[in-house]
Amino acid sequence: MPILWLILIVFAIAGAGFVLARARALACTGGEIRGLHSLPSYYGWNAVMKSLVPACGLLIVYLMVQPFYVNGIVSSMIPDSEIADGSSRNLMTSEVRRVAEGIDLAVTAQYLSDDHLNTVEPDILAITEQLKGAGAIITGTITPTILTAAQEYRAVTATGLVYITILVIGMALSGVYWAIRQISPAFRARNVVERGIKALLIAAASIAVFTTVGIVFSLFFNTVEFFRIYPFTDFFFGTNWSPSFSGRGGSSELGVLPLLWGTLFISIVALAVAVPIGLYAAIYLSEYASSRIRGIAKPMLEVLAGIPTIVYGLFALLTVGPLLISVFGEGGVLGVSWQGGGRAVLTAGIVMGIMLIPFVSSLSDDIINAVPQSMRDGSYGLGATKSETIRQVIIPAALPGIVGAILLAASRAIGETMIVVLGAGAAARLSLNPFEAMTTVTAKIVSQLTGDSDFASPEALVAFALGMTLFVITLGLNVFALYIVRKYQEQYD
Amino acid sequence: MTDLNTVFAHEPRVKTSLLTQDEHTKKRNAAERRFKSYGIAAVLIGVFFLFVLGFSIIRSGLPAFSNVVIGVELTLSQEEFDASEKELFKTKAYQSLFNAAVEKTVVEKGISVEFDNAAIERIMGKTGGTIRSHYRDTQSDLGKSVTFELPVASRVDGYMNGRVTRDTLQDSRFLKLSDLDLVDGLVEAGVIRNAFNWNFLTGADTGVDNPGGAGFGASVVGSAFMMLVVLCLSLPIGVAASIYLEEFAPRNKYTDLIEVNISNLAAVPSIVFGILGLAVFIQFMHLPQSAPLVGGLVLTLMTLPTIIISTRASLKAVPPSIRDAALGVGASKMQAVFHHVLPLAMPGILTGTILGLAQALGETAPLLLIGMVGFVARGYPDGFIAGFTEANSAMPAQIYTWAARADASFYEKAWGGIIILLIFLLTMNIIAIILRRRFERRW
Question: Which residues of A touch B422 (CB under 8 A)?
Answer without folding.
Answer: 307, 311
